[in-house]
What we know:
Blueprint: H1 6-22, H2 27-45, H3 51-63, H4 67-74, H5 80-106, H6 112-137, H7 149-164, H8 169-199
Helix pairs in contact: 1-4, 2-3, 2-4, 2-5, 3-7, 5-6, 6-8, 7-8
Membrane topology: Multi-pass membrane protein
Active site: 90
Keywords: Cell membrane, Lipid biosynthesis, Lipid metabolism, Magnesium, Membrane, Metal-binding, Phospholipid biosynthesis, Phospholipid metabolism, Transferase, Transmembrane, Transmembrane helix
Amino acid sequence: MLNGLRGAMTRFFTPIAKALLRLGISPDAVTIGGTLVVVVTALWAFPTGHLLLGTLVIAVFVLTDSLDGVMARQAGRSGPWGAFLDSTLDRFGDGAIFAGLVLWFTAGGDDRLSAILALACLVLGSIVPYARARAEGLGMTASGGIAERADRLALVLVATFAVGVGAPTVVLTVVLALLALASAVTIVQRMSKVYRQVTG
C-alpha cells in the first residue's frame, strides 16, 4: 500500500536531503535521530494518554523514514551498513509504538483485551521481518504478504489518531485484532514461500 508512494516520497525528500548533507548531517544521524524521537514519543505520549500528539509526531518521522536513504544515495554512500542500521532501528520504533499502546491499555486505558492484541501485534510484527531476514540469510526470498511494515504502521497510527480525536476505543481494538491476524497470515505466507523454494 504505502510502498507505492516510495517514488513520490523520494522526489519530495531530495531537496531536503541535499540541504541536510550541505549542513554536514549524515544519513546515519538522521536514522538514529528519527528512531530516538519515535521511541521516546511512543513510550511517553501513548502511556500517558496523549494519543493525538503522539500519533502526529510519530507519523511525521515515519513518513520521513526514507529520508536517510535518499541522503545516502545523494552522498554516494548507499550500502549494506545503511540498510542494516535502518532495518535494525525500525524494529525499535515499531516495538515502541505497540509497547506504548500496551502500557496505555493496561494503565489509563484499563482494557486487557486490547492490551493483549497490542502485545500480539508487537510479537508477530517482529517475526514478519525476521522470517524475511532469515530466508535471505539462507539464500532464499520471503518478502511480500498481506501486512508489510508500512501497512501495519499506517493502520495502527490512523486508528490511534481516530481514538485521540474522540472515536471510541473499540476502533483501535478492532484494528489491532485485524493487524494481529494479518501479521500471522503474513508469517504463514512467508514460511510457505520458503517451503516452496526448499521443496520445489
